[in-house]
Amino acid sequence: MEIKNKKLAALWQFVKFGLVGAFNTVLNYAIYTFCYYVFNTGEQLANLVGFLISVLSAFLLQSKFVFRQDENAEKRVWWKVLIKTYISYSITGLFLTALLLWLWIDVIRLGDHLGGVCEWLAGYGFEFAPKDLAASLAPLLNMVITIPLNFIINKFWAYRQKKKPKEE
To answer: In 3D, which of 166, 160, 151 has the Cα closest to residue 19?
Structure first.
């Protein structure tokens, strides 16, 4: 019975991580899109601004709802967890997404393959240049890769707690 409960608890933790992640993904994407279209920042700066704000949100929500303190383990130091969270998301959410944005937009030239989609959308009143549509879709493609990596890094490194030393 204990194994089943542990599996259920692990599944529930992943679901909560997914819900927090979904919120932060929407937040990041909204900030990215706002910066890109309203402030004309370009993909990389829009990505950076979205990253900085959404990681802070992720830290706050994950600390409260996903990776709660284990009272039987050493207490976490909040600022160390925040730094680790920024480091882990820097690897997956900033460095990797910047690399993937470059790959989708400049190497694979995703926009070159979206002309038909742009024409189809135009038929419904949505006007996109292929490069702009590619810039809008690329972060969504990135999530397929980065979300599972984020969970693993956060669970086993950023929010990991050391066991308390046994009292003798």
So the answer is: 151
Instruction: State which residues form the domain around 33.
Output: 2-67+74-158
**164 found inside a domain:** no
**C-alpha–C-alpha distance, residues 107 and 138, integer Å:** 12
Whole-prediction pTM = 0.67
Q: What pLDDT tens digit does each residue of the chain (168 aa) get?
A: 566 788 898 889 989 999 998 999 899 999 999 999 999 999 989 989 998 999 999 999 999 999 987 887 788 888 999 999 999 888 887 789 889 999 999 999 999 999 999 999 999 999 989 999 999 999 889 988 888 888 889 888 888 887 777 765
Is 163 part of a structural domain of the chain? no
**167 in any annotated domain:** no
Domains: count for the chain: 1
